[in-house]
Amino acid sequence: MLYHPDKHRDPELKRQAEQLFNQVHQAYEVLSDAHSRAIYDIFGKKGLEVEGWEVVERKRTPAEIREEYERLQREREERRLQQRTNPKGTISVGVDATDLFDHYDEDFEEMPGGGFPHIEINKMHISQSIEAPLTNSDTAVLSGSLSTHNGNGGGNINMTVRKVTSAKGWGEVELGAGDILGPLIGLKVFRNITSRCFLTAQCGLQFSPRGLRPSCSLMTARHLDQNTMGYLQWRWGPNSAMTTSVVRDTKRSHFTLALQLGVPHSYLMMSYQFKFQDEDQTKVKGSFKTGWFGTVVEYGAERKISRHSVLSATVSIGVPQGVTLKIKLARASQTYLFPVHLTDQLLPSAIFYATVGPLLVYLAVHRLVIIPYTQQQKEQDLELQRKSSATDIAKKKQEAESAVLLMQESVRRVIEAEESKMGLIILNAWYGKFVSDTSQKQEKAKVIDVTVPLQCLVKDSKLILTEASKAGLPGFYDPCVGEEKSLKLLYQFRGVMHQVISADTEPLRIPKQSHRIESES
């Protein structure tokens, strides 16, 4: 009724009333329709903008609407997926730093500059793959890799075509070629046997310089309970083996127990990972592995250092492998590995430096680089959000000012009615970010006067506001996007002054006796 154009004779007020009345009309259409209202209650305004709702049955529960919304979102993501590739890559750089602990002093004395340990890169590996969706059920994957170790290296390229045959299975064909092992032909099939069990079969034929080298593998897995999987794998070929393992993954831990019997490798392996429930997703892990070729103990930690990056460090202690420090950085779909071989012997000094060194370096880098960088990124994101919403803020401000103009006559009548019975009169009301420091006077521009809008909401000498943000009230707008806001009121009730300050999302009900300002004697 307040915004109806027919209630205003002034042409300018009539034009502003029409704009606000159209918004009220749109809101009424959504909230008066049970189907649209359910969508809005669950997903907000963005949910109403998703294409495909017009073909959805209207008599649905909120749970069914949520499932339908997720289905429409998945279909939209699938359409996007068909238009782009999914690159994945791995770079591994092996460092030989054994001279730090296993050097020979007499050799260094004979060589110029021999006092400095010799550290070198002795191996590298680079692999990359891209996906190309052909249809909704067919995907082609092109991958390649290059490796070098102590001056000798090689590479290969592979192409795989995968076809999803049904909701229970898929199959893929692989063709590859390399400069060492020769051409490769492979076939892999996946099938869900039951809802708790699946099977994977794979066979390949390698055309090597020594003749044909066939291989075959068969793996079955079963859900033992909600968080536990059991695996059984059989491989036949150059490295024939039978492997069984149990993996338990919960919200706070990850446990793996595996046993392999084969020629030439047989081993028993056990690993445990504890997951901290913090913002950085910190994980601490340890593992033990023993077999025909020795024993290895590993321990390490993993932590998220930015939105898309995860850093981990692992110390590997083994006989006869020695001590190795493994550093891994995963950023989005790219992985960078840096295994640093420190010594061939079990030296306490190497174990100490491999454990303490990365920890000290991480703490220093985290404090001096990562924390300032993340804070700068947050500030940039906030500034970008402010700039992107500047137009929207200007529009909301104009709408609020228009609403205040349209409220003047209604507010005059409310004040007259309240004064006649010594009711609730809003003397001053401010909304936004309040700054107490007098040196920051420019911050006062982030507070707006909302006396008229609040007086218009007074009914029967009462004002009731819910816990929702006050920026959505008629005549309000957000003067400081992304910052904490408050509402400050000075009002009169029964001739007595009252004052209250309320948080933006805090419910408010006035008048209250506790808001009363005691007069000075």
TrEMBL record:
SUPFAM superfamilies for the chain: Chaperone J-domain (SSF46565)
Keywords attached to this entry: Chaperone, Membrane
Pfam families (alphabetical): DnaJ, DnaJ-like_C11_C, DNAJC11_beta-barrel
Keyword Transport: no
Domain J: 1-44
Locations listed in the record: Membrane
GO biological process, one term: cristae formation
Keyword Membrane: yes
Domain of life the protein comes from: Eukaryota
Listed name of the protein: DnaJ homolog subfamily C member 11
Originating species: Scomber scombrus
